[in-house]
Design a protein that fits this description.
The structure holds 2 protein chains of 2 kinds.
Chain A lengths: L6 E10 L2 E11 L4 E5 L6 H8 L7 E6 L2 E2 L2 E4 L2 E4 L2 H9 L1 E4 L11 H11 L5 H14 L15 H13 L5 E5 L7 H16 L3 E5 L3 H7 L2 E6 L2 E6 L1 H6 L4 H10 L1
Parallel strand pairs in A: 3-10, 3-11, 8-9, 9-10
Antiparallel strand pairs in A: 1-2, 1-4, 4-5, 6-7, 11-12
Chain B lengths: L23 H23 L5 H8 L2 H33 L3 H16 L2 H9 L1 H4 L2 E5 L6 E6 H4 L2 H27 L2 H9 L4 H31 L11 H12 L4 H28 L12 H6 L11
Antiparallel strand pairs in B: 1-2
Helix pairs in contact in B: 2-12, 3-4, 3-8, 3-10, 3-11, 4-8, 5-8, 8-10, 9-10, 10-12, 11-12
The chains are: A alpha/beta, B mainly alpha.
The complex binds adenosine-5'-diphosphate (ADP) and magnesium ion.
Magnesium ion (MG) binds next to helix 1 of chain A.
């Protein structure tokens, strides 16, 4: 077994003013595995995910991605905040997919995908273009490469957003409720893309309410409530036979 | 058996033809307007006091052409510099650095709050306040160069200072509202992809903010074109200055302002066309695949109701 997990979250705390949103989170995600995160609204799932690529700062604890400390540098026993440039470099290696897609509204699907490899990685347009078309083909949208986000359905937008994140060749992909903003009939096409991605060996952390997906694709399942991990383990075990009363109460409501 | 009947109720015949609602008020109001317009045009051409012959003889006169050229030049230069400074001020205003933010606020407060005419006169007379302008270390440090304010602040420079600083104050507010109108999710997505702040601003935020900014910025340009006429008070030979000069010499007090108005009208018309072109260009991403038109147009277009197959 690989000694180092791809993502290691250790005793992470975060406050919004007086509100203790993350209260000692511990998580670990191995390379090539899929971790699903479930829990009631407001339990801190999004915040936890956003800390992994330093979109949110943490107050205590450490997060490592591929062995590297996220957002800080350890020196003389202290943590020093990183320069913006280094934060950007770290974020470039972590893909993120949002509930509301957040595609760049003034760019076509193709331009959305090409933007970061060219602007962040400084790669040549011609190479990036070919890769972007391949990615669009992979998510089944190569015929709509010239459409603007407003001309795509929600499901199509989310598939473009996944392709956009993949174009940076990330080490890990973070999904924050990727299907929650979609009409029910469009959920399947996005989950299909994610299923294929998991099968290809991508390391993924997925906040979701799709329990069937978690059971089928997840290597582990984490139940969060009140800013802590209440229970985690094999998705089938946790979903079929929850140990903690709060997990039982939550699952009885959503299943 | 179905409980919902799809057959026609007995005794009701199907309507054959749709008769549009008559709107007689519309016809009456149109006739009244047309009569008034015809009357206006008639007066314009039959009243000899307008002196259209004099208007025609001065329309392309060399001093008028020179003045027009200077007016257009001032408009373009003042707008370009004003927009650039406005973007900087808007970014300062939105920055988390309180010194930058309050400085931008104070700039806008001052330059928007005082009349442009006063600012122009002030810049023109700067040499009275500061006879020499020194470049060096502030608070009594060494001086590297000392310049004569009378030589630097030419009428053109004074005009540009007045127009640009005033315009920047207005543009700052327009740019700021444009930037705040961009969805926060756009910045998050750019950050998550590893884009730095400068690139996010230039590649993601400003292009999207531009859409919101173009209509007010177009108005600003048209206003600027006419505001440049104020520089005639500080002896800059723009279109208005030349017109005033000629009409003072020839006592043609009616036809020469008409000459100026015709040129201003033409220039603003050209600008309006440019503005709608730009709006269309930046609105590209809004177009729907199905060809669904502008909802607002449909709302106000009573004569052509939404076609059934058009949604
Ligand atoms: N920027 C913020 N400022 C203050 N409170 C916030 C902020 N973002 C999130 N919160 C609060 O933190 C809690 C956790 O939010 P979130 O991580 O989005 O939960 P989840 O994704 O599990 O629904 C919520 O109660 C939310 O109101
Ligand atoms: Mg959330």
């Amino acid at each position: 077994m690989n000694a180092l997990p791809m993502v290691q979250v250790s005793d992470v705390h975060k406050h919004y003013g007086d509100f203790h949103v993350l209260n000692g989170i511990n998580l670990s995600l191995n390379a090539g595995e899929v971790m699903c995160v479930v829990g009631p609204s407001g339990s801190g799932k999004s915040t936890m995910l956003r800390c992994i690529n330093h979109l949110e700062k943490i107050d205590a604890g450490t997060i490592h991605v591929d062995g590297e400390l996220v957002g800080y540098r350890a020196r003389n026993g202290n943590l020093h905040e990183m320069k913006d440039k280094d934060v950007c470099r770290q974020r470039a290696d972590v893909g993120m997919v949002f509930q509301k897609f957040n595609l760049f509204a003034h760019m076509t699907a193709l331009e959305n995908i090409m933007e970061a490899p060219m602007q962040v990685r400084g790669r040549r347009r011609a190479d990036v273009r070919d890769e972007a078309m391949e990615l669009l083909e992979r998510v089944g949208l190569d015929a709509k490469s010239g459409n603007y986000p407003g001309q795509h359905s929600g499901g199509q937008q989310q598939r473009v957003a996944i392709a956009r994140a993949l174009a940076m060749k990330p080490k890990v992909m973070l999904f924050d409720e990727p299907t929650s903003a979609l009409d029910p009939e469009l959920v399947g096409e996005v989950l299909d893309v994610m299923r294929e991605l998991a099968a290809s060996g991508m390391t993924m952390a997925v906040v979701t309410h799709e329990m069937a997906f978690a059971k089928e694709v997840g290597n582990s399942l984490v139940f969060m409530d009140g800013g802590t991990v209440i229970e985690s383990g094999n998705p089938r075990d946790v979903l079929n036979n929850p140990q903690h009363p709060r997990t039982q109460a939550f699952l009885s409501k959503v299943l | 058996m179905s409980t919902v009947s799809t057959t026609k109720p007995v005794g009701v015949t199907a309507p054959r033809k749709v008769i549009p609602l008559r709107r007689p008020g519309r016809i009456v109001s149109a006739i009244i307007i047309l009569v008034l317009v015809a009357q206006g045009i008639l007066v314009l051409f039959t009243n000899p006091n307008f002196e259209w012959g004099v208007v025609a003889s001065y329309l392309f006169a060399p001093p008028i052409m020179q003045g027009l050229w200077l007016t257009l030049w001032l408009t373009v230069v003042a707008m370009v510099l004003g927009i650039a400074l406005g973007v900087v001020l808007a970014i300062m205003r939105l920055s988390s650095n309180p010194v930058a933010s309050y400085t931008a606020w104070a700039f806008v407060w001052f330059f928007r709050g005082t009349p442009l005419l006063v600012q122009l006169v002030f810049w023109y007379n700067l040499a009275v306040l500061f006879p020499s302008i020194n470049l060096g270390i502030p608070f009594g440090g060494p001086v590297f160069a000392s310049l004569d304010a009378n030589k630097i602040i030419t009428p053109i420079i004074a005009s540009l200072l007045g127009l640009v600083l005033n315009e920047a104050a207005y543009m700052a507010e327009i740019v700021r509202s444009g930037i705040t109108a961009v969805d926060k999710g756009q910045v998050e997505a750019a950050s998550a992809l590893g884009m730095n702040r400068a690139k996010t601003l230039r590649r993601i935020i400003l292009p999207q903010a531009s859409r919101v900014m173009i209509p007010p910025a177009g108005n600003e340009t048209i206003t600027m074109l006419k505001s440049t006429s104020l520089v005639s008070v500080v002896a800059v030979a723009d279109l208005m200055y030349q017109v005033n000069l000629i009409s003072a010499q020839t006592f043609q007090t009616i036809p020469l302002p008409i000459v100026a108005s015709l040129w201003y009208l033409l220039a603003t018309s050209v600008l309006s066309v440019g503005q709608s072109r730009l709006e269309r260009k930046f609105g590209r991403s809004d177009q729907q695949v199905s060809g669904q038109g502008n909802k607002f147009k449909q709302l106000f277009n009573a004569r052509r109701p939404m076609k059934a197959g058009n949604r």
